[in-house]
Structure formats: C-alpha cells, structure tokens
Amino acid sequence: MAMTGILRPGHTQLRVLDMEESLNHYCENIGLIETDRDDQGRVYLKCWDEQDKFSLVLEPSDRSGMDHMAFKVATEQDLWRYESNVKNFGIETKRIPAGELKGCGERVRFVAPAGHTFDLYAEKEQVGNGLPTTNPAPWPRGLKGMEPIRFDHCLLYGNNFEENFKFFTEALDFQLTEQIVDGETQLAAFLTCSTKAHDVAFIRSEKSGQLHHASFLLSSWEGVLKAGDIISMEDIPLETGPTRHGLTRGQTIYFFDPSGNRNEVFAEDSYVYPDSPVLTWTADNIGQAIFYHSRQLVESFMGVTS
Amino acid sequence: MAMTGILRPGHTQLRVLDMEESLNHYCENIGLIETDRDDQGRVYLKCWDEQDKFSLVLEPSDRSGMDHMAFKVATEQDLWRYESNVKNFGIETKRIPAGELKGCGERVRFVAPAGHTFDLYAEKEQVGNGLPTTNPAPWPRGLKGMEPIRFDHCLLYGNNFEENFKFFTEALDFQLTEQIVDGETQLAAFLTCSTKAHDVAFIRSEKSGQLHHASFLLSSWEGVLKAGDIISMEDIPLETGPTRHGLTRGQTIYFFDPSGNRNEVFAEDSYVYPDSPVLTWTADNIGQAIFYHSRQLVESFMGVTS
Amino acid sequence: MAMTGILRPGHTQLRVLDMEESLNHYCENIGLIETDRDDQGRVYLKCWDEQDKFSLVLEPSDRSGMDHMAFKVATEQDLWRYESNVKNFGIETKRIPAGELKGCGERVRFVAPAGHTFDLYAEKEQVGNGLPTTNPAPWPRGLKGMEPIRFDHCLLYGNNFEENFKFFTEALDFQLTEQIVDGETQLAAFLTCSTKAHDVAFIRSEKSGQLHHASFLLSSWEGVLKAGDIISMEDIPLETGPTRHGLTRGQTIYFFDPSGNRNEVFAEDSYVYPDSPVLTWTADNIGQAIFYHSRQLVESFMGVTS
Amino acid sequence: MAMTGILRPGHTQLRVLDMEESLNHYCENIGLIETDRDDQGRVYLKCWDEQDKFSLVLEPSDRSGMDHMAFKVATEQDLWRYESNVKNFGIETKRIPAGELKGCGERVRFVAPAGHTFDLYAEKEQVGNGLPTTNPAPWPRGLKGMEPIRFDHCLLYGNNFEENFKFFTEALDFQLTEQIVDGETQLAAFLTCSTKAHDVAFIRSEKSGQLHHASFLLSSWEGVLKAGDIISMEDIPLETGPTRHGLTRGQTIYFFDPSGNRNEVFAEDSYVYPDSPVLTWTADNIGQAIFYHSRQLVESFMGVTS
C-alpha cells in the first residue's frame, strides 16, 4: 500500500487541573467518548469514528499543557527504523513498555528539538467506531456535543525551529505542506505524514515545548456553527471563530478547556499529495493566513500556549 | 514521506460521440476547465483544485466508454518498479512515449485482468489550481456548474474478478477498503492507494473492461443538491440521487453524459488508513450498501455500463 | 400587525394502529416531544421550536389516516368570523368545547368540500420551546432524531376540488401560491395563510378526505441527509428522497409511519407575499414539479394515501 | 389572505461616494443585479429572488448613509390608511409622485421620530425573479458573488426611541419580536410586519436618523462562509463574522461598502407569529445577544453608523 511509515497522530496526552470539569468539557461538550481509566487517574477518550482505543488521554495534574503527542506507525519494523533515525539524528530515545498506556503497544519516546515529547508506537488495541464492520450505518446514534470524528493534529510552539523542522522532515519523513515565512525565516511549518494538510504544525517561538492547540475534526461547516453555539451555551471561553483559515483552508473555531488548554474543532477543506506545491504565506499577510475572513490576528492566539 | 508508490488517479480518457455537446456537459454543467486540445481532436480538462494539466481527456469516437485510466506514481523509480511488478504478474506492458498526451510523461500501459487499460506515469505538467502558491485564496472566483474539486475515482465492471483483485492488491499495492460479498464470493472491491475510501473500484461482471462511472469530488452535501438542480435544469439524464452510499458513506448523485458515460459527483465522508478494518456489505443487503436511503438498487445501476 | 385571521396549521390528529411503535417513530426517530396524554389514549406531541402545547395528536385506532387538521386563528373574533364564513359558504359547523383536546380552546369544526375535517381555534396553552424568553440559546440541547422545528403543513387528497379551492380561498382567505394544471383543470393547489409556500395543499382525487402526508420542517438540507440516514438505520419505509421539489423548492424526504401514514421532513427554500405571482406547473411536467431531480413520479406517491 | 397592510421592506436608497466602486461592490461582490438607472444618476438593483424591479437604489452623493427606506403595502387603500395613521400620530406626510423612482408607484413619505425617512407605496413594477412562472427552476444560473435572495431589513440608530417605537407599533402595526432592555429601558427593538424575526430594527441612540446596516438574505450558513471568503478575497472591510446572532438566531457576517455603509448578509433561522412571545435580551448580556459565539461586542458595531 502507498501509506507507509508514520501514519497518523495516534493520541495526545493533555494535563488537566480538574478531571470532572475536564470530562464534562471533552465528553459532554466536545463529544469524545470515554473508553478507559487507569490507576494513575488518567482517563482515555476517543472520537467516535476512530477505531483505536483512545486518541486523547487526560492526565490529572497541577498545571495544563501537553505531556506528549504520539504517532502510530504502520509496522513494528517502522518503529525500529524510526528509533534508529531519531538516534542517528542525535536525539536520545527511550522505550516505554507496552501497557503503560492501557491498550497501547511499546512506545519509542524522544524529545524533539522544539522541546515536545513524542512517542511512536506500532500497536494499539482497536475497539471499533461503534459500528459493525458488516453493513455499517454511516454513523452511530447517540453522539454528543460537537460530534468530532477524530483527533486530527496538534499545533505546537517551540524553539530550535530549524533543527526541529529538519528533524521532522528528514528523520521522520514528514512533508512540508504550508508555511509562513518572514523573508528567509520560516515562522510556521505545517507538516503531514499522510494526505492531510497537517498532522502536526510548529510555530517558531522562544519558549520550548509549548502546546498551542489540540484539534478535532468535524464533518462540516454546519458542525462548526453547532460547535460555536455549544461554546456559548456552555459558557466555554471562545478564542475566535467560526472562521476559515487561510493556511489549509480549514473551517474552524478555537476555544479553551477548563485547564486553559486550547482546542480547535474544524472541518477540512484541503488535501495534499507528495507532489503538491508548498503553499507559502508571508509574514506581512499573517492575519489572513491564520484568520482568512478578518485578516487580523487575535492577540491571544499568538501569545497564549499551555 | 508516508505516501509512496501509486499516488492517485491521475486521469481517465473517455470516448464521446459529440465533442461540442460533451464539452457543454463537462465544462458548463459539471464545471471542469479546458486546458488543451491535441491534433487527435482530444480535449484536456481538469477540475479546479487539481495542480496537474488534466484529469479528464475526452476523445472523439463513435462509441462511448473508457479508453484508459491512469495513475500517477511518486517517482520514476516507482514507475519502473511497477512496470516490473506487472510483468512479473504475467501481464504485458508497453511504454507510451512522453507527450503522446500533451504534458504527460512516459506512461507504462497494461490491460488488467478485468479487461481495462491502465497507464502509470511519474510526470505530468503542473499548471496549478488557479490560485497563487503564495497567499492563496481558498478558491478561485468564476467557477462553473457543480464546481468539482478533483477527478476522484472510477468504478469499473469486469470479469476475471479474483485475478484482477490479486493484481491490484499484490502487484500494484492497492488496499481493500470495502467489499460486497455473496457468501464466499466477492462481488465488489473498493480499493485505495491513499487514504481515500476508494481510488478505483471493481464490480464482478461477465463482460470485460466496462466503465460504470467516472467520479468527481464536490466540497459538500450542499454541492450535491446544487448538482441535482443543474441536472434537472439542463435536462441531463439522472440515474439516482441525491443520496448517500452505504459503501464509503459518500453523498452522491449519478447521471449520464451525452454519450451515455455515467458520471458521479459526490462529497466524501470517509477516510482509511492501512490498519482500518475492511468493511463488508453482504449481497442480501446490496441495496442499502449502494443506496443507503432507499435500500433498493436502481435497475440501470447494475445493468448499464459503457 | 400584518398577520391576521388564520395564522398557521396548529395541529393535526393522526390515527395510529400501535401507540408504542408510533411514539418510537415520532419521538425517537423524527424527534417530536411528548407533552401530554389524555383518557382517550391520545398522546400529544410537539416539535421543539413550537410554543404551543402540541402540534401532533396521535389517536389510537384500528385504521390509519387523519382525524382532523386544525388552524390557529389570531383572535376570538377571527374564530367567530370564520365560523360565519363557513356557514355562509353552506357548510355546517359545530363547536367542540375547550379542553376536549387538553390545553386547546374551543374549536369550530367543519368538513371541507374535499372531505377533510378541519378545526379552527383561537387559544392553545403555550408551553414554550424549551428555551427561556430572556436571553435564549438558539436551540435547546438534547434534541432527538431529525430535530424537526415545527409541524408545517398537510398535503391532502380529495374530491370536489373546485368547490374546496373556492372554500379555502374565499371563505378562509387562503392564498394560492403554486398549482399543477392540466389544461384548464387544476390538479393541485398549494395554499398559504402566511408567507410560507404552503400551509395546506390539495390534490384532486376521486376519493374524499384522504391524507397524503403530514410534514415537519427541518433547519437545513444537511438535516434532510440526517433524516435519510435515520430512515435507513431504523428501517423506516422510505418513499423517496432526499430530493428537491419543483413546487415550493422544498428540500425533502418522504417516508411512512408504522401505521402507513406518510410523513415528510423538509427544509424550506421559498416564501411568498400576497403579491407574489402564482407559480404554475403543467401536467406534462408533473414529474419535475414534484421531484425536481428525477423528474419522475414515484408510483406510490400518487397512489397511496391514508 | 392573512397578510395585510405593510408587507415588507420594499427597498432602501443608500448614498454612495463612487458609483463605479459601489456597483462593483453590490453587483460583483454581493451579487445584486442592476435593473435600471435614472437621470439623477441613481442605479437600481435587486436581489435575484425578488419579483419587484428594485430593492436597493444607489444614489451618488458626497456622503454615505441612508436616504430612505420604503415599505410596500398590500393595497392602495392600505396606503391611504397608513397615510392617515401617520398624520393622526402627528407626523407630516408628503406624497411623492409615481415614477420619481422608475417603476415605483406613488409614495407616502414621512420622517419617523427616530429621524429616518420612510416611504410607503402600493405599486412597483414586477420584473420577475429571472425564472418563468410556469415550471420554474429553483434558481437561475449565472448568479454572482454572495447570491443574496432578497433585501431583508435595515437596522437603524436613532433618538426619540420610545416615540418611534410607539409610532411603528401603533401607527404602522409592526409587532415587537425581540428587544434588548436595560432595566426598564428598551435599548433595541426588533420589529416585524410579517413572519420574519425583523423587517426593521431600531437601536436607541443620541443621534437622529442613522443607518447601522442594510441586510440581505442568503440561503444557508454555507453562503455565509462563501460571503466571508469573498470579503477577504476582494479586500472588503469586514466588521465581524461569520457568527450567529443571539437576537433572531441569524447566521451572519458584517462588512462595509466602499462608502462606509455597513452591510450584512445572513441566513435566517427564525420566524414569528402574532402570538409568539417577545424575546428579551438583557443589557448585561448584550454581547451574547448580538454576537452569540464571542459574547463580546465589537467596538465599531456600537459606534459606527452612516
């Protein structure tokens, strides 16, 4: 098959301050589904149309932020190949045993140059998407909230930007799809390991290892309206939207979880192939690049990370 | 990058009886864009969001049907590798020189077991999607008709079904995503070379090398309504729709070009990864598999090909 | 205010064979909300965005069909004025005491020339739409099924077509919005008492007093897709759709309740004023008039009533 | 028929600084259709689905703002009745002869207490909506820009708020649908003469006779996205949106014409009857009342009028 190596963002683990409030946010309001808990107090969630056991892990903590983001690779061989690539790039790796996250196989962990912890893994328990694999309906009844389809990507702020970019594109085989540049300087890089406009994206920052947002896919622009309605009804802090991104053309809305972690839900309007031209947005047009309609950055959008 | 080998359906060449009528159909009503003509009288068309010079070639003929379908591969090496794979499978190949189709590189041609002619190629002139690669708008103004985004896939009827399936999955690395089965017999196979629910699909038939339909992607279900309206306004023969497919969950409408070639325009609602479970539809439920809402096959849908 | 006299279809009372199955259909699948029951075994339902206590009454019976359809008038004076109009037209009226339907004021009942029983009433208990009247959200959480907004209209088959038309337009002040004609003969009349493309519609028939369908409004074409999905998931008999009507431009899907009463859910795409031109559809084009996309009548659509 | 008296906003006449730029804005970008010009240099425009000759008149001027807003009444008798009502309310009227605006009958003109000039008229030439009245398609091909359906309403800022409210509800029979109140003080009144959530709305101001915006109806939320895209592509000053209003639930986007007149395009999600409860928004919640998602007023929204 044509898809090999790193397949997709498999999950992210976010730190949350109050688990009950967080579950209300992620399950009742966004609409993820709880699939398990562990003795560290972590709660495992998935979006309805994901086959794997979880795509979001909430970890009780006294601070917000992202513990790690993990990618699923196609095969065990890919796992060891990328472990070797990472080491050859000069970055230490460590192996996290299977089962440390329930249902997840052995993970190869490393800290990328921009300061974020990433895991790769080849196995995760499949629990299905709530539909049979024989004669399935298009969606299961009883979905909640914004009805997200899948965990889609993270946008991350970090330093060592050039080295991080080199690491992702050379050691991990990601493809640059879109970028923001200021003259010769790349300010943002949107990277895919698939045909999505981004599976992970990085913004140049002086701080290391920051989470800008974790993003979940909706099925349509009408879903973005519904999300905005729920955000207001439930008194969730909105950052901005509904709007469209210039970058990726995504139809989007941004808001915060109760711990201050930023979330996005969006509907996709783009796709890439290895031979797609890189799309470049210029720093003098950064407002339109990010918020296509207003053409103005929201101050918090550039400043607040977790 | 994670996408390698065969990337996508690059184009199909359809035979049409009356070029003027056909261009009115494909350009004014569906909304493809003419990019070139050649001295064989062929006309080259593309959907707006494709980068390559063409994705549909209309060939003047005295009968309808598909001349060939072509896939773009990632690299020249992939081209020779697949040429070798095809030969090793026991199928003859021939090389069509670069430029035989304007803007297209050398092609490797073969007839698959079900009787259809396929080409592989590694190069095609990129003419862009009508938007700059720096600070692009999300879409260009002046789009026409149903505003299709891309040529998406063909559904083909043919014999030697098992061998053809083996050929596509083993020699060409396609992945089975969904199928219709009657007991142990596979009646239909939906195959991807990417993350789409299908890049090509085959239906078991006694006839060899038949085209069921060529399909173009729309951006939303609202686009399917608009397509239905245009079909009626312009007195285009409708087969069925708007409706949803069980298979792939696509939101779809079927109709015929003036030569009797079947077209589909649809909005996608699905995606696959190499580890996605194969979805199986059973023959006793074939109506729902194909037309999810009515759960009844339209007679022509199973019978008419070109 | 500019709206006077007969305001809207206030409710319809349908006969159902099995109340439990019917409630599953109307409440779980379509998504109406039960508001009361009475000692005749009748169950009162409303759509979420209606203020009044009920808009659909299910009556246990051994046959399907419509018991009556009722219109709300603006004032008590209007009620007596229309009672007088009806009598002057030569049709008997009778008064049904307040409370015979729980929460409904006194009704003036009569049988229109086409054989259907209609009630007029000026008062019905308002229970609200589930939202406060101060700082209301745009919709309440917890909606079910197809999430219909309101009971919208009935389409009725009946004889004495000309007299019935004269009665509705002259005695009851309805306005003709659209019609199907065969030469000089009016086959269908769509009638409004408001700015809707129809509040009630009649089809010429040899039978008296038949129900073709009761219709509920959805908020969008995306809702029609969702309705189609639910119809298939829940194994509800579909008649046709999703499609668009030529008449009224409505975006529609038709199906049957467990007793064989036809339902429609639709999204509206039209509006009229008293000075809007009457739109005429010709009998030779009746397929397109009714099902705009296929331009073909479904046989059952013309034949089956309850 | 149930609709009597004042039927709808028939047109507004806006002052524009540069006619060519303005026509590009209103015709190419918003998508109105030019129907005539007169020897005062005024240009007559209509939305596609309006039957009447024009609904927007652009008047060349050296300042922006609204010259007048006009309502169509059902009959000549209504015209004289309202003329009398206005006079009885103590407001002077004057008659503007038929033909002063091309295709428009005699108008009764007056200045309402909040300082805006209004006209009533009973006749306007009908030019149709681009579709035949026999077997019409649901929409005509060749629509441009945002494809607005109709001129829908104006929102006006003015003083003498109480008297103006009394005038509209008592002399002109408008119905209050929604309001913003600060304790006992009404800050905003949304008024209908039909079943729309508003045909005109007033905001309490110290200034007399100001235009806040003229609004055009779109067919769906997807249209609001397309409008936002066009606004950015064409470098039109955006105020805010896409978003939803709390008031009226409208799905909306605001922007400015080249002269500084504010425009709205929106999709409607509400309807009223004479017995609908008045919806009240409290001043402490004014952000959510106006921009439901952000719950924050945009500064310009309250300050800038023309």
What is the gist of this entry?
The structure is a homotetramer of 306-residue chains. Chain A contains 6 helices and 17 strands.
Features:
homotetramer; 306 residues; alpha/beta; 2,3-Dihydroxybiphenyl 1,2-Dioxygenase, domain 1; 2 domains; 9-stranded mixed β-sheet; 8-stranded mixed β-sheet; 17 strands; globular; XylE-like_N (chains A, B, C, D)
Tell me what you see in this structure.
Chains A, B, C, D: It catalyses: catechol + O2 = (2Z,4E)-2-hydroxy-6-oxohexa-2,4-dienoate + H(+). Chains A, B, C, D: Homotetramer. Chains A, B, C, D: Residues 8-123, 150-268 form the VOC domain. Chains A, B, C, D: Pfam families: Diox-like_N, Glyoxalase. Chain A folds into two domains: 6-121, 2,3-Dihydroxybiphenyl 1,2-Dioxygenase, domain 1, CATH 3.10.180.10; 150-303, 2,3-Dihydroxybiphenyl 1,2-Dioxygenase, domain 1 (Roll), CATH 3.10.180. The relative contact order of chain A is 0.16. Chain A is globular, with a radius of gyration of 18 Å. With 306 residues, chain A is α/β, with parallel strands linked by helices. The mean pLDDT of chain A is 96. Chain A has helices at residues 19-30, 76-88, 161-171, 221-233, 286-290, 299-303; strands at 6-16, 33-37, 43-46, 56-60, 65-73, 94-96, 107-111, 117-121, 150-158, 175-182, 185-192, 200-204, 210-217, 238-244, 251-256, 262-267, 279-282. A nine-stranded mixed β-sheet of chain A has the order 14-15-16-13-9-12-11-10-17. In chain A, strands 2-3-4-1-5-8-7-6 form an eight-stranded mixed β-sheet, covered by helices on one side. Chains in contact: A-B, A-C, A-D, B-C, B-D, C-D. At the A-D interface, α4 and β14 of A face α4 and β14 of D.
